[in-house]
Amino acid sequence: PPAGDKILPSAINTDATETCTRVLPQTGSPTAAPELCVIAAGTITAQGTVTVTGARALVLIAAETIVVADGATLDASSTTKTNPRRVGPGANLGPCARPGGADGQAAGAGGGAGGSLATKGGDGGRGNLNADPMKGQRVAQGGRAGGTQSAPLLLRGGCPGGKGGDSQIVAGAGNGGAGGAGGGAVYLIAGASITVTGDVFASGAGGDAINNNSGGEQGGGGGGTGGMIGFDAPTVTLDGRVVANGGAGGGGGGQDTGGKPGGDGTTTDWNTQATPGDGGSGGPPQIRIAKGAPGTAVGMTANIDGPDADTGGGGAGGGLGIVTVYGKLAGAVSSVSPAPTTHP
């Protein structure tokens, strides 16, 4: 059994092999599923803010106890709106029903679809609604979200959102907003107990957009899904916040400028949807310009399709991730999104 007391550092990069007690493969890793970065000790404690990034999923194994202390945060989320941006551990690897492509259209492209995992992401908004068929113009369709995934047999992160359609296609590169990354994957295993009085986050990133004149008429990117958070111990106490929410969609471009990125999956506001990205600017007052769609949170998975627009369509919201618990749940369990799947 592992021994000693381990206090987690403020930043964990699972790509750094020396960070891991051991690196273990999963079926299909490293391309179809993330490898595992295992950190093992007798006891493990998270204090302050611990951010986790890297291609490998993070597994904490304690022979005795794991504690995420009051005021501490173990954050495996992906982000678009932080500086620098982050991709959570093991995100975007694993079976995903990839969103369908959004239409490119010079006068208004379609929005990107949200990623799907435990719940379905939204469909991207349509662009160029004021198209005149008599002039050979057409409406640009938004991307269509894939279906939900079956219960995973492996530890995996969330699924990415879809890219928004391009309004300017030059040499194979375009200006559609990029889809947000899915949230990361973190699994806590303890021989005696796990106690969370702080926060454990693995939310998805908001869909992107280009908020300058390079983004005119672009489709907003779709939000990424929440990732996966697992607990396995004889007694699991979740008195803090445990969150794997989906990111919001990026705003569609106006005639002059692109939209703004969607909000990252909510964390401290655990039961609030991430804020949609604003649409771009430019054009007559009657021109419809689209925001993105909100993200997802517990009990809030509807109305996440990207809005339609006369210019670029809005990006859609990403679906919820997964929270799973093996062992006896103790405490209030009052701030968990999505609701945990329990295995006594």
Verbal overview:
The chain is an all-beta fold. It has no helices and 15 strands. Strands 1, 3, 4, 6, 8, 9, 11, 13 and 15 form a nine-stranded mixed sheet that branches. The radius of gyration is 20 Å and the shape is elongated.
What is this entry, summarized?
The chain is mainly β and 344 residues long. It is 0% helix and 24% strand.
Feature tags:
single chain, 344 residues, mainly beta, nine-stranded mixed β-sheet
Q: Into which percentage range does the β-strand content fall? A: 15-25%
- Helix vs. strand class: mainly beta
Count of separate DSSP helical elements: 0
Radius of gyration: 20 Å
Summarize the biggest pleated sheet: 9 strands, mixed
Specify the overall morphology.
elongated
Mean pLDDT: 95
Q: Helicity, in percent?
A: under 10%
Q: Order of helices and strands, N to C? A: EEEEEEEEEEEEEEE
End-to-end separation in angstroms reads 24 Å
Write the layout of secondary structure elements.
Blueprint: E1 5-7, E2 11-13, E3 22-24, E4 36-46, E5 49-53, E6 57-68, E7 73-75, E8 185-190, E9 193-196, E10 199-201, E11 228-238, E12 241-243, E13 322-330, E14 336-337, E15 341-343
Parallel strand pairs: 1-4, 2-5, 4-6, 5-7, 6-8, 6-9, 7-10, 8-11, 9-11, 10-12, 11-13, 12-14, 13-15
Antiparallel strand pairs: 3-4
